[in-house]
Amino acid sequence: MSSHREAPEISKDPVADNTDVYAFVSPDNPNTVTLLANYIPLEGPAGGPNFYEFGDDVLYQIHIDNDGDGVADITYQFRFQTTLQNPDTFLYNTGPISSLDDPNWNKRQFYSLTRVRRGHETLLAEGLASPPCNIGPFSTPAYDTLAQEAIHVLPSGETVFAGQRAEGFYVDLGSVFDLADLRPFQNLHVNPMAAAPGVNGTNKLNVHTLAIQLPKSMLTHDGSNPTNRNDPRSVIGVYASASRQKARIIGPNAQVEEVGPWVQVSRLGDPLFNEVVIPLGLKDLWNTKSPSGDRQFLNHVQHPEFSRRLTEYYPGVFSHLAAYSKPRADLVAILLTGIPAGIIPGFQNFTGETLADLLRLNMAIPPATAPSILGILGGDLAGFPNGRRVVDDVFTIELRAFAGVTIPLVDPSFTPDAASSLVTDGLDPSSSITSPFLSSFPYLGIPYSGFDNPS
Amino acid sequence: VPKLTRRSLLQQTPISAAALSLLSAVPALAAFPRSPAAPQLSATSTGSMVVRVHNGATGEMTLLVGAREIVLRDTRLAASLIGATREAGSHS
């Protein structure tokens, strides 16, 4: 998956598990950038009576590096508080929820938002309401209206939302983890079967989303409005994290107390980085680190296991890739430094020599009028790996990159295998995601209801 | 300070029976002279304090209080904590 249950320890702590990060110039408001950070993987919509929610004991953060050192210059911190209106019922709601202050809604979440800019903390808002989970047509009959009520426009310039959304990441999980037995290509697999269409393993599941939309000028190092795509100041690096306090004490009468400094237990920048680049024995360590220290993981990017496995699982299909032994400078650029100017005409998202897994967005590149789900591989400079939009097929883009299609960007002597520009898990969001993306903030679709998606 | 995660705290602390407790609840410590090296803690602290003794021989410890972590080295305090656990045995 992108980063769902990607490491042994965090897979046991879903409330703190980053699943996806998105950063893109808002297509309907191009003077702004939208940042999305998803948590809680694979939420079954019918998972009541204690429906999914953010953790009151988790510090959720979205970080922005705007000077290329891999260290956050701006951080948005979300802290949640859950309230129970009626502890004497087992129900999440005792009747239809028609508004965010409806007395029928028993278990509610509120949050504060703090901005940390170069060490200076500013509490931007508190008591911001999250929407309920999408229960079903009797309990949450006008869900979109509830969600709209939970979009908060702050005097400080940010628009924020925090709550349940339909999962937007699409991937054929069942085939990927069956040793990359990609259905459209399984006739070429070491265990051949007839080729078949892909199946989206995350369809009809939900996540919990933190969303911020803010003017571009609030993200640049010097407050300038990025208009020149060649200007390094136009590029930001984004990642999200979750932290818990060091110690947890389970006391009598179900009391739980947490104490000590916050310790990062999950992070995410580029999709699939921890998932497929970092080996099992290092994944939990990676989750605790700052991107600025990612040089220690460089070898796993330069010599990725995933590329080697492709050559094993598809014998003879990736013969050029199998013979390529040089360090993968293309992947280092895509994942750790950004792509320098002069490699792709009209594009750069280079942030310097610091090796850091960040989602890098050149904010001066306007939204595409006809986005390609293959992003830059599809000739669309506004898509992944220039940031990431909800529509981007990041699995196929990275699959093809790992298969060698991007090597010629840095090594013209290499000829990619024919399959490297074709290989895919066979999914398109228009047909594989039931709840469609929205055309406006927060862009991810209306969450699936438990009643309509019982299993 | 060795890496400490919330998950490993209980399992890895060498004297785990003593490591998690209200410090003030250990009678042997009530009159224990505070090391000059020990930081002054707020007298208004009301939450629990977690003490982790990393190494009884060197006295290396960390105190978790509120959202803070305080590292100190105090062989006498460490010895007293270890002694308290031996005297008290384990409680369930």
Describe the structure.
The complex is a heterodimer of chains A (455) and B (92). In chain A, β7 and β8 (159-166) form a beta hairpin. The mean pLDDT of chain A is 97. With 455 residues, chain A is an alpha+beta fold. The radius of gyration of chain A is 22 Å and the shape is globular. In chain A, strands 3, 4, 5, 6, 10, 11 and 12 form a seven-stranded antiparallel beta sheet that branches. Chain A is built from ten helices and twelve strands. Chain B is of the alpha+beta class and 92 residues long. Chain B has three helices and three strands, in the order ααβββα. Chain B has helices at 9-12, 16-19, 75-88; strands at residues 49-55, 60-65, 68-73. Chain B has a three-stranded antiparallel beta sheet with strand order 1-2-3. The longest helix of chain B is centred in the last third of the chain and has 14 residues, at 75-88. The model of chain B is unreliable at 1-44 (pLDDT under 50). Classes of the chains: A alpha+beta (455), B alpha+beta (92).
Topology:
The complex is a heterodimer of chains A (455) and B (92).
Chain A: E1 18-25, E2 32-43, E3 59-65, E4 74-84, E5 107-117, E6 120-129, H1 143-149, E7 152-153, E8 159-166, H2 173-176, E9 206-215, E10 235-250, E11 256-268, H3 273-277, H4 280-288, H5 298-302, H6 305-313, H7 319-323, H8 329-337, E12 359-362, H9 394-402, H10 429-432
Antiparallel strand pairs in A: 1-2, 2-9, 3-4, 3-10, 4-5, 5-6, 7-8, 8-9, 10-11, 10-12
Chain B: H1 9-12, H2 16-19, E1 49-55, E2 60-65, E3 68-73, H3 75-88
Antiparallel strand pairs in B: 1-2, 2-3
Structural class of chain B: alpha+beta
Mean pLDDT value of chain B: 64
Uncertain parts of chain B: 1-44
Q: Count every helix of chain B, treating DSSP H or I runs of 4 or more residues as helices.
A: 3
Query: Biggest sheet of chain B: strands side by side, in what order?
Result: 1-2-3
Tertiary shape of chain B: flat
Cα gyration radius of chain A (Å): 22 Å
Please work out how many helical segments of chain A DSSP would assign: 10
Instruction: Tell me the number of strands of chain B.
Output: 3
- Please give the most extensive interface between any two protein chains, plus how many residues each contributes: A-B, 16 and 16 residues
Biggest β-sheet description of chain A: 7 strands, antiparallel
- The amount of beta strand of chain B, in percent, is 15-25%
Termini gap of chain A: 20 Å
Distance between the termini of chain B: 29 Å
Radius of gyration of chain B: 12 Å
**Nearest-integer average pLDDT of chain A:** 97
